[in-house]
Amino acid sequence: MPASVLDDVSHRRYNPLRGSWILVSPHRTKRPWQGQQEAASKSTLPKYDPSCYLCPGNKRAAGGINPQYENTFVFVNDYSAVKEEQADYHPPDNDGSLSSLFLRAESVTGKCYVVTFAPSHNLTLADLAHQQIVSIINTWATLYAAHLSSTSSLSQIGAATTLPPASPNIDSVRAKVQYRYMQIFENKGAAMGCSNPHPHGQIWTTTSLPEEPAVELEQLKSYNREHGGHHMLEDYARLESDQRERIVYQNSAFIAVCPWWATWPFETMVIAREHKRALTDFSSSEKEQLAEVLSEVARRYDNLFETQFPYSMGLHQAPLDGSDEETQCSHFHIHFYPPLLRSATVRKFLVGYEMMAEPQRDITPEQAAERLRGCGGVLYRMKMNVE
To answer: pLDDT tens digits, residue range 325-343?
Structure first.
């Protein structure tokens, strides 16, 4: 248990997953608040939108036609952030010049996918039935396995099986080159830059190891070396399970917490209790339990302010093509970064001090977890529909 004095004094908290610090100012929550109080929002989106690029049977922006899919649907992004094929770029030799020191670049190729979560236009992760979320997880796992390097120890247990009906077959998603990393993520809500409300996520595979997972992986490797082969997030999940005050929801396979070092007001992290390197390590039962936790987190978010709670969510797991140390030290976890602070329209901004110095938060993770724990039960929209 943290010292009670921390509930009322400004202090810094250490993030071992990034090797960084965050400023916490809990005393600021006592300041008077006369901001806007929001009424519950009720979704007015139709089940099917003829103008939506992601609804079944509709024409996409680049001209392709969606099939009449019934579960998840996967297709290569019509406007990918990275290209599979492009002109070769070879950085000039480092000759000691200022240009070679400061003006560095490297070529990145990759493949980007869109994964629709369900055919209904007006649903979100919080609305989906349990088996629909299991279908999403299975789709993620299949695509991840299809891109694994043949030299990875994960490829021996993650042999690709099949994708859901109406999705590309495995051969069509195999890469022309071996990619280094796969980032699976979802941006929910216009506040997070989502351009289409139809429930969907994205998958970007790249020849490079992106900055965020690279920083975490270095920390995970260092912890493993310095603590006798222990895994950081396995130890941290055990600590949180013992202390309980930052837990939002848990089952026998996963724990969802507002981490000690959280930056965003209601940030949560879903962590596998045991050391699991990637989606391919999970049994069918564990995927079922992961679906349960994702549903609980998403529903509690929406119930908190009775709104379609925006967030960016992303999976961090072992690289597709990594060293044995990188693979073995990776630990599967999911980050949820939501911006809302006090109501459906009052959000947290990382500006000023946060941009120039270090991140800062007011409400403590312990306070955030307590509020989210109290938001379980039936999704608020279901109650409104009954009324």
So the answer is: 999 999 999 999 999 887 7
| Catalytic one of 200, 275, 316, 331 | 200
How many other C-beta atoms lie within 10 A of the C-beta of residue 152? 23
Burial class (CB in 10 A: 0-12, 13-18, 19+), 41: middle
Residue with tokens 């996520």: 201
Q: At what angle do helices 232-243 and 211-226 cross, to 10 degrees?
A: 80
Name residue 1's amino acid: M
SS3 category, 116: strand
CB atoms within 10 A of CB 321: 20
Please count the other Cβ atoms lying within 10 Å of the Cβ belonging to residue 170: 16
Phi, psi of 342 (to 5 degrees): -120, -20
200 is catalytic: yes
Q: Please state the length of the chain.
A: 387
Contact by Cβ (8 Å): 141, 279: yes
Q: Tell me the C-alpha distance between 331 and 325, whole Å.
A: 12
CA 106 to chain CA centroid, Å, is 26
* Segment 234-293, tens digit of pLDDT: 999 999 999 999 999 999 999 999 999 999 999 999 999 999 999 999 999 999 999 999
Closest CA to 200 of 290, 113, 292, 78: 113
Contact 208, 108 (CB under 8 A): yes
| Contact between residue 142 and residue 165 where contact means Cβ atoms under 8 Å apart | no
Place of tokens 């250490």: 14
Pairing of strands 20-24, 360-361: parallel
Q: How far apart are CA 301 and CA 305, in angstroms?
A: 8
CA pair distance 256, 369, nearest whole angstrom: 10
Q: How far is CA 281 from the centre of its chain?
A: 18
Angle of CA points 349, 213, 167, to nearest 5°: 95
* Pairing, β 360-361 against β 73-76: unpaired
Is the whole-model pTM more than 0.90?
A: yes
What CA–CA distance (Å, rounded) separates 286 from 363? Answer: 32
For residues 69-94, one letter each, b for 16 or more C-beta atoms within 10 angstroms of the residue's C-beta and e for the rest, the string is bebbbbbbbeeeebeeeeeeeeeeee
CA distance 270 to 259: 10
Tell me the two tokens of residue 123: 């649903």
Amino acid 354: pLDDT: 94
